[in-house]
Amino acid sequence: MSNKMHEMKLVGTNSDGYDEWHCPICGRRLLLKSQPTLTKLVLAIGDMTAEHMGVRPGLSFTSRNALPEPTKPELPVWMEDFSERW
Predict the structure, then answer these.
(1) Residue 86 belongs to a domain
(2) Residue 62: which of 47, 51, 49 has the closest Cα?
(3) Is the pLDDT of residue 67 over 70?
(4) How confident is the model at residue 44, as a pLDDT?
(5) 75, part of any domain
(6) Is position 77 within any domain?
(7) pLDDT tens digits, one per residue of 9-34
(8) Residue 13: strand, helix, or coil
(9) Which domain holds residue 51?
(10) pTM, rounded to two decimals
(11) Cβ contacts of residue 20 below 8 Å, gap of 6+?
């Protein structure tokens, strides 16, 4: 992580209970849901070298304590060479 700190702003909460957060500095956008377990969905990556933080009643997060970025899903064996067959 760099020493850059970006404060994310709470945009609102959608009907599924996800809080939408936006970084006005780099454009990072994500959805966070804290119940029943912490779930993070990244909508726009923004500046990955900056540390992001956000606070609202009942929830605070930083890049250090948030969930890791999603990994590429594993494909079933029969799909691994799918694009090569076309």
Answers:
(1) no
(2) 51
(3) no
(4) 93
(5) no
(6) no
(7) 999 999 988 999 999 999 999 998 87
(8) strand
(9) 5-69
(10) 0.64
(11) 10, 11, 12, 13, 14, 29, 30, 31, 43
Residue 73 exposure: Cα atoms within 13 Å on the Cβ side: 3
Q: How many residues does the chain have?
A: 86
User: Nearest CA to 63 among 9, 14, 15, 8?
Assistant: 8
Q: Which residues in 36-50 are b (16+ Cβ under 10 Å) and which e?
A: eeeebeeeeebeeeb
3 state SS of 84: helix
* Count of the separate structural domains present in the chain: 1
Query: What share of residues in the chain are helix, strand, coil (percent, to 5)?
Result: 5, 40, 55
Mean pLDDT (whole number) for 47-61 = 81
Instruction: Kindly report which listed range (3-7, 19-23, 60-64, 70-74) carries the lowest average pLDDT score.
Output: 70-74
* pLDDT value for 37: 82
Give the Cα separation of 86 and 82 in Å (integer).
7
Is 57 a member of any domain? yes
